[in-house]
């Protein structure tokens, strides 16, 4: 079964989370992870996004950059830019939503709409 793999352009851990939250407040225009911003805002998960994620029939996995590199480095290490949404099939990872598309999005509704449209076409 296919699943969507969301990879944030941020590292895991509480300290990194605090630093990211501070960066979003102090200098939001220079924050490097629009996927983080869209799905999580500053302190908690976006309500619209959370509702979609919890009710979607599409399996989803969420990884921070360091977690992705650890899990997939040997096979897919330097093939992608981040943030990104990948389609994880049995044998490969395919780009589902490219970094440029994610960085151009303004909100969770736009992300949800694109996911729904592309899942219909697959």
Description:
The protein has 122 residues and is an alpha+beta fold. The protein has one domain (3-121). The protein is 50% helix and 16% strand. A four-stranded mixed β-sheet has the order 2-1-3-4. It is globular. The model has no long low-confidence stretch (mean pLDDT 81).
Structural class: alpha+beta
User: What does the main sheet amount to?
Assistant: 4 strands, mixed
The stretches of 5 or more residues where confidence is low (pLDDT under 50) are none
Q: pLDDT average, as an integer? A: 81
Distance between the termini: 12 Å
**What is the helix/strand order?**
EHHHEHEEHH
Task: Please tell me the total number of domains.
Answer: 1
Strand content: 15-25%
Q: Count all strands and give the number.
A: 4
- Globular, elongated, flat, extended or rod-shaped: what is the shape? globular
- Trace the largest sheet across and list its strands: 2-1-3-4
Rg calc: 14 Å
Summarize, please.
This protein has 122 residues and is an alpha+beta fold. Helices cover 50% and strands 16% of the residues. A four-stranded mixed β-sheet has the order 2-1-3-4.
Task: Name the features.
4 strands, globular, 122 residues, single chain, four-stranded mixed sheet, alpha+beta
Summarize the topology.
Elements: E1 3-7, H1 14-26, H2 34-40, H3 47-55, E2 60-63, H4 65-76, E3 84-88, E4 93-97, H5 99-104, H6 108-121
Parallel strand pairs: 1-2
Antiparallel strand pairs: 1-3, 3-4
